[in-house]
Design a protein that fits this description.
heterodimer, A: Rossmann fold, 2 domains, 6-stranded mixed sheet, 4-stranded antiparallel sheet, 12 strands, 29% strand, globular, B: 260 residues, mainly alpha, ABC transporter involved in vitamin B12 uptake, BtuC, 11 helices, 84% helix, binds adenosine-5'-triphosphate, binds magnesium ion, P-loop_NTPase (chain A)
């Protein structure tokens, strides 16, 4: 497989305040891959994604996306942040998506008919057309999240950065959203980096695993990383990886 | 009532004020920054009292103090918890200075009443021109700012990732709030700025309209309340600010009823 790398980091060190979050990490993500991003709380998953958006500047090293240096406001990146601010409770989902459509441009928040059609298509893509008509304040956390996934897909980005898109979804929905992400990514040929805490819903969806812990990064194919020794070392507690007869892999940890 | 020059002036002046206060108020409510708006009105009071003491036009004092203070507020971070305390401190200090300036003035009572409760019936031709100028400038600025402002208000992290400078947007917006506050203070007085700024915006938010429609609705409400207040005051001879306050609260309550 000779593919251009979507993300390439060379000796990147990321620091927040006086805390070094990641030190000297080098990795590359092949275009078209679906990367699961894991690591304990505070490991630097959000910081890493923000560095790809140039919201955090590396103190050393360089990051390139599709061969270009990272830049603020890159339209080729779709992003779903981790913290979901609940303002605008009286607005509808479509209003929310409309506000982000070329939302960085000066002017009136006017959305053309073509823009509205794009929003409807994005909502349809994640089966959220009905949600788009409801008020944000009346949506459950998981429903809101599906809207935000639709928003991240707007403009058909080449690289999709999702910060815990599966958090606060019920187990069935988690799997459903994970499969949906996989299908959309395949259909549009997107590269996805998706952070999560629960490995199970992403089994069969992701093809690459990126682990962050104690300032270091480790990347590899799923069957190399989702193993008892690697995960136990990563989380610092014994982790069990069971291969069910159905072919599913189940991960569970003691003391987590 | 339109036969009198001072009434025509008052209607024109309150129209200028309402068309700026409505849209700015809608964003103020959306962003949950009404407290900052409240503080700006008090700072504007200190500015106006200071200007009156120095013999400058109080309107210039109102505008200058509120716009500068808005800019300063925007530049000093966005940690809301701490910021509310900081705003509260500055607000008290501003009120304190306002009281001092009044104390040093030869006829404090007249100035104080006009500043605190408004003086829409005493608008001169020159003032009308300044009010209209500030309203047009404010509307143009808001027109340019509104798209990134809406995005940054609803989804700050995402807006930042797409290249919106949160600090710039928030600073420019607070300066606009300052301008709108100063304008309102002319009509309703410093103490009742909320009635024209936050009242219409909050009522429009309650109706659950899409952003542009909501902004339009807030503008119409602000205009209706200001003109309604003037008319009612003409017939009853009670203060304009009183009627605007009553209409503003009534609109807010009615907007809530519609949702039930
Ligand atoms: N402004 C800051 N100054 C100093 N340290 C910070 C700052 N913001 C975050 N940190 C620290 O940086 C580290 C990385 O944070 P980050 O949000 O990237 O973690 P995460 O892996 O996304 O965690 P979670 O799973 O909880 O979302 C954390 O230890 C956090 O305490
Ligand atoms: Mg995080």
């Amino acid at each position: 497989m000779e593919r251009e790398s979507a993300v390439a980091c060379h000796d990147v060190t990321l620091r927040l305040g006086d805390r070094t979050v990641l030190s000297d990490i080098s990795l590359s993500v092949a275009e078209g891959s679906f990367v699961g991003l894991f690591g304990p709380n505070g490991a630097g998953k959000t910081t890493f994604l923000r560095a790809l958006l140039r919201l955090v500047k590396p103190v050393s090293g360089d990051i390139t996306l599709f061969g270009q240096p990272v830049a603020r406001g890159n339209p080729a990146i779709g992003y779903m942040p981790q913290s979901r601010t609940p303002s605008g409770a009286m607005l509808t989902g479509r209003d929310l998506l409309a506000s982000g459509l070329s939302g960085a441009k000066w002017g009136l928040p006017w959305v053309s008919r073509a823009g509205m059609a794009e929003i409807d298509a994005a909502l349809e893509g994640v089966d959220a057309v009905a949600l788009g008509r409801r008020r944000l304040g009346a949506l459950s956390g998981g429903e809101r999240q599906r809207l935000l996934i639709a928003q991240a897909l707007l403009g058909s980005p080449r690289l999709l950065l999702l910060d815990e898109p599966l958090a606060s979804l019920d187990p069935a929905r988690m799997r459903e959203v994970a499969l949906l992400l996989r299908d959309v990514a395949r259909r549009l040929g997107m590269t996805v980096i998706c952070s999560a805490h629960d490995i199970n819903p992403l089994i069969g969806v992701m093809d690459t695993v990126l682990c962050l812990a104690r300032g270091r990064a480790r990347i590899g194919p799923v069957d190399e990383i989702v193993t008892e020794p690697v995960l136990s070392e990563l989380y610092g507690v014994p982790v069990e990886v069971c291969h069910a007869p159905s072919g599913r892999v189940l991960v569970s940890a003691d003391g987590l | 009532m339109l036969a009198y020059d001072f009434m025509r002036m008052a209607f024109a002046a309150s129209a200028c004020v309402a068309v700026l206060a409505g849209p700015v108020g809608w964003f103020l409510v959306l962003r949950g920054q009404s407290f900052a708006g409240h503080a700006l009105s008090h700072i504007a009071f200190a500015g106006a009292a200071g200007a009156a003491l120095l013999g400058i036009s109080p309107l210039a004092g109102l505008l200058g103090a509120a716009v500068l203070a808005g800019g300063a507020m925007g530049l000093t971070g966005r940690d809301t918890g701490e910021r509310d305390v900081a705003i509260g401190m500055v607000l008290s200090l501003a009120m304190g200075f306002g009281v001092l300036f009044l104390h040093l003035m030869p006829r404090p009572a007249v100035t104080a009443t006009a500043l605190l409760f408004g003086n829409v019936l005493g608008v001169s031709g020159g003032m009308l021109v300044s009010l209209a100028g500030a309203a047009v400038a404010g509307l143009v600025a808001l027109g340019v700012l509104s798209r990134p402002l809406l995005f940054a208000s609803l989804q700050p992290e995402l807006a930042e990732a797409r290249g919106v400078s949160l600090r710039l947007v928030s600073t420019l917006f607070l300066m606009l709030v300052g301008a709108a506050t100063a304008e309102c203070a002319q009509i309703t007085g410093v103490l009742l700025v909320f009635t024209l700024m936050v009242g219409p915006g909050a009522a429009a938010q309650r109706l659950g309209l899409a952003p542009l429609a909501g902004i339009g609705c807030a503008t119409v409400l602000a205009l209706g309340e200001a003109w309604g207040g003037l008319a009612l005051s003409w017939w009853t001879d009670w203060p304009v600010s009183f009627w605007i306050a009553v209409l503003s609260v009534a609109a807010f309550l009615l907007a809530g009823l519609r949702r039930l």
